[in-house]
Amino acid sequence: MKKLINAPADVVAEGLVGLERAHGDRLRVDHAHRLVLRAHAPRPGKVGLVSGGGSGHEPLHSGFVGRGMLDAACCGEVFTSPVPDQVLAATAAVDGGAGVLHIVKNYTGDVMNFEMAAELVAAETGVRVEAVVTDDDVAVQDSTWTAGRRGVGVTVLLEKIAGAAAEEGRDLDAVLAVARRVNERGRSMGVALTSCTVPQAGRPTFDLGEDEMEVGIGIHGEPGRHRVPLAPAREVAAMLVEPILADRDATGEPAIVLLNGMGGTPLLELYLMYGEVAALLERAGVRVARSLVGNYITSLEMAGCSLTVLGADDDMLGLWDAPVDTPALRWGA
Amino acid sequence: MKKLINAPADVVAEGLVGLERAHGDRLRVDHAHRLVLRAHAPRPGKVGLVSGGGSGHEPLHSGFVGRGMLDAACCGEVFTSPVPDQVLAATAAVDGGAGVLHIVKNYTGDVMNFEMAAELVAAETGVRVEAVVTDDDVAVQDSTWTAGRRGVGVTVLLEKIAGAAAEEGRDLDAVLAVARRVNERGRSMGVALTSCTVPQAGRPTFDLGEDEMEVGIGIHGEPGRHRVPLAPAREVAAMLVEPILADRDATGEPAIVLLNGMGGTPLLELYLMYGEVAALLERAGVRVARSLVGNYITSLEMAGCSLTVLGADDDMLGLWDAPVDTPALRWGA
Known about the structure:
The structure is a homodimer of 333-residue chains. Chain A has helices spanning 11-23, 84-94, 108-124, 154-167, 172-185, 233-247, 267-283, 314-321, and strands at residues 27-30, 35-38, 48-55, 72-78, 100-105, 129-134, 186-192, 212-215, 226-229, 254-261, 287-294, 304-311, 324-325, 330-331. The model of chain A has no long low-confidence stretch (mean pLDDT 96). Chain A is of the alpha/beta class and 333 residues long. The longest helix of chain A has 17 residues, at 108-124. In chain A, helix 2 (84-94) packs across helix 3 and helix 4 (154-167) crosses helix 8 (314-321). Chain A has two domains: 14-185, Rossmann fold; 186-323, Hypothetical Protein Tm841, Chain: A,domain 3. At the A-B interface, helix 1, helix 6, helix 7, strand 11 and strand 14 of A face helix 1, helix 6, helix 7, strand 11 and strand 14 of B.
């Protein structure tokens, strides 16, 4: 295992030290609870947005805390759900009197712990909490740590769009509604060329032959649809685009497209893949209205990529374009 | 070799197709010359900024084209200098009547080809051209493809700062002066945990044992100062900070600090490393005024990182903070 770390057990805590040092002008870290929060207290009347999950997917979620996006991120151990106490503390910290939305990726541990936290919040604080659970991965129906589909790339788009809705002052029902609409209309599919190595495990999560790739990979290395021989980028693009389009109702609407790197694939390859994907989408009648190419929901140093296609209405496009000021997404601000 | 590509010979051309599809609203690509240009014609009276070099270091340079930064990037083959004709075409395309600054990393081929291009520009167009050559890498005095020090991370900071100076209307002499000041006051040092693989070579550029790292690595895998056993992050941080501080005249001034990923290292590790580096800098009396953490000047999928410390005066800090709108750096716009 070759990593720029100290003791494997300290990776998450020490990563947060660095994040705080780099972005202390706009973020603060609650080290006891492993929360990343905006530096300034919540604006009264603004719906609070809390997300979180296992670490190792950076910039998701900690890199998306800031104006126009999340109010707090709860950081679990690498590939391990945050505990209910973290989510409780985050929810209490960001409540501005208008309620709090929990954004949860569909993994059994995450869903359970966010639900337990919501019960604790109700019992201890009276803050109104709603939740949206993302399940956009078309690869498989159930998975290693998931009943139903896994939540992946659409989470990034949802955090941006719901974050903008909250920032412009919409109430909790309205923010929840647009968040659910994003999840319903977003679809994703991923591919891995290599495994990743969890620091505390010390060896690759799975084995993949020198000439193999895993199509439909999960963000923790969960098995996908099939293991196939390494193929040219344009064939890989088809393996991502076709299952997504086969799963969607409409293809003519404008789309927000995320071509996401898993962490270890160079940007040159991600842009090359985006070119292949965009050409296929265009041929299928999908009008790409907005795009995002880069490492946004990663699996440590895994080589590979995922594609997310979100059929977006004008409201979503407007919210996408709204200013955002976070470590990993920043524009108009 | 596991890469998301088609034919190895087409990687650069096809990467540009994807870049254009993703950012066609603000960039255009001259595919014949392999140039990335701003979508809109140069503003009369603005100094033009042209950079370029071998591909494989993305987002450098193509991801830094846009308002407040470069006017054009010349994309060579992977780890191969662009040819003079590319630089000539870029220079002619971006001239707004106020002259053009060439930003060149100190590699023999790059320096030679930019110089030849400047001669062609003088002979064919009469556009005034000046050049700044970056040589910030303290690791070694001469290197595989370099006489003198190599140009690395300071190039990112220089393109931002000189780009802002040009955008606010400074003349060529003034833009050149601030660019040279940035290079003179910036120092860098890198470390690699793994090699990278050039697509057309098909195998790793160098061999590194499972328990080894290369301290002082170049961005094309050129040898550094020494090969040492893998060490904890806080020791690696000292191996980067100490040679930089030993090479600088003053340490009390405010600094802009770039903790850069080589391409294959997860963001979690980069932030962890930044925490270690920032603590050492603080202890040495360096006041970190601005920081940037992420993959900005990469070596394909190499695992590792580099540190750049720039002693910045108020003018540089103001130019750093000015709005920028490029694929890879975007704020205030």
